[in-house]
Write a structure and sequence with these properties.
Layout (H helix, E strand, L loop, with lengths): L3 E3 L5 H13 L4 E5 L2 H18 L4 E14 L2 E14 L14
Parallel strand pairs: 1-2
Antiparallel strand pairs: 2-4, 3-4
Helix pairs in contact: 1-2
Length: 101
């Protein structure tokens, strides 16, 4: 399985663009983060991507899990974030405040 690897130095806007592009292309989005700073950037990116996608009738949500990975011969705990896609019905279209009714 391939992951978008997010670091504490990743630009949330750039990661958001990648998420939105993958969602629009129908590609599953899974992210991998090591460290609190990386998780912070990933969550900001998901929020930004959600803002990009909602006006197109697509909403996203996410679910985090822990994973033990090896980096440089050393075991580390990563957070993997799966992004789920939800197609909005016209009745659920967002209002001016961006919220779904």
């Amino acid at each position: 399985m391939e992951f978008l690897k997010v670091s504490s130095k990743s630009s949330p806007a750039s990661v958001a663009g990648a998420i939105a592009g993958m969602v629009k292309d129908g590609v599953p989005v899974d992210m991998q983060c090591v460290g609190a700073g990386a998780v912070n950037q990933a969550v900001k990116a998901i929020a930004i991507a959600r803002g990009f996608l909602i006006p197109t009738g697509i909403d996203i949500s996410c679910a985090p899990t822990f994973s033990d990975i090896e980096i440089g011969g050393e075991m580390r705990t990563a957070i993997r974030i799966a992004v789920y896609v939800h197609r909005l019905n016209p009745i659920e279209a967002p209002g001016d405040d961006g919220r779904v009714s």
